[in-house]
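Box 4.2: Ligand-aware structure prediction
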Amino acid sequence: MTHGSQTKLSMPSIEAIVFDLDGTCLSTEQLIVDVARRVLQRKGSSLTKEALEQSIGKPPLDAWQSTIDALGLEASAEDLYAESEAELTEHWHDASYMPGALRLIHHLRGQTASLKIGLATSTPRAVLAKKIQNKPLLQRVFQAVVCGDDDDIRGRGKPHPACFLKVCSLLSVEPSRTLVFEDAPSGLVAALEAGCHCVYVPSIANDSAEEALSEAMRQRVTRIPTLLAFDPVAFGLDAFRDTVEGTIPFVEHPESVIRIRGTVVKGFGRGSSELGIPTANVDTMAVARVLPGATTGIFYWWASLPGKYPGTVYATALSIGWNPFFKSGDDDVGKTCEPWLLHDFGGEDFYGAEIAVLVLGFIRPESGEFSSLEALIDRIKEDGEVTKRVLAGEAMMAFREDEFLRGR
Ligand code: ADP
Ligand code: RBF
Ligand code: MG
């Protein structure tokens, strides 16, 4: 598998890994959006794509104000925030793992060389307990946990380096031998200020946090689009042992399987005509409901069109992302979710149909670095071949029977 710029870094050997929680290990953003959706429903309104885009990545009160403005509501941001906080308190344990987080943490625990693992989160300790209430791995894996309301941290939240300095000290490791996983610009700065190296997995789409960093600091950042693209070998750690044909199957951790149900919508109209590869674009709201906004990559999955062809399941290669090969300059082309069903429909289209998909594995990060359109097409066809081979495996075949694929 290719891993872009994850070349081996010139850094001392890694003795500790420190995780941020929200947006890095847990997909709390999804939960917050779900709760926002319910709050708005009770007000007789509903969350639109535009309102969601306006509010993503902002602090809660600002996010609510943007939503109110975008939807033209007669409500105060304070009231809606209070209402959503009350509901969130009851639902923190519903937060799912970020794609690849469960697998990565399991892997790090099983390293041959002893590796310390810590957590540095802005979350108050009481809320942390709720968030990990039903996640036994997160309850026992960290040898040191620093929370935002700890006495010596309060008032010195990220981007202040205090939380990372403290967790390093609790783990008895030098920051220079510590690798931090972060998804937010403030966390990235905090980790670097503390002297750590940082694997930056931005949770905000098209974020450019590195631009604000000094050249020296930038040397200590490795950006990846999703934890699924992390290569431990580049950091002197053991290689993953769960890959099949260079891909990452999710079946070992069934909670990692992603289920998307949506409607087939119109795309840019270049799939069939320009590439000869039709893709049944899924409406982005359906995707946003289950996958963090910044997660991109090429995946494989089983798909069905339950309303149209009930009972039939198709092997499918899927691209989720910004199609960087086609992105010219600063054009902000929207994120798409495009399944290529590996089946000949004889020229038929199924716009408007319900599509159910079970994402079972990760093939590679999406790439903009193809020398020609033909090179991209060849690579996509190779993704299709890999998909067919991997999905033929016994564990994968079993998922064809999944209730989810039968429709509502
Ligand atoms: P668009 O940009 O609108 O998605 P495409 O050229 O990618 O246009 O065409 C995709 C459409 O073709 C799909 O929405 C679907 O209705 C139809 N289609 C036909 N065969 C397939 C297939 N094997 N996989 C995906 N979509 C297909
Ligand atoms: N687009 C890219 O820009 N980079 C990619 O690496 C890439 N990989 C893809 C892999 C698969 C399996 C599929 C189906 C599509 C991929 N595409 C990629 C998306 C392609 O650009 C898109 O489907 C067309 O532009 C039509 O919108
Ligand atoms: Mg398409």
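In the box above, the bound molecule is magnesium ion. The radius of gyration is 22 Å.
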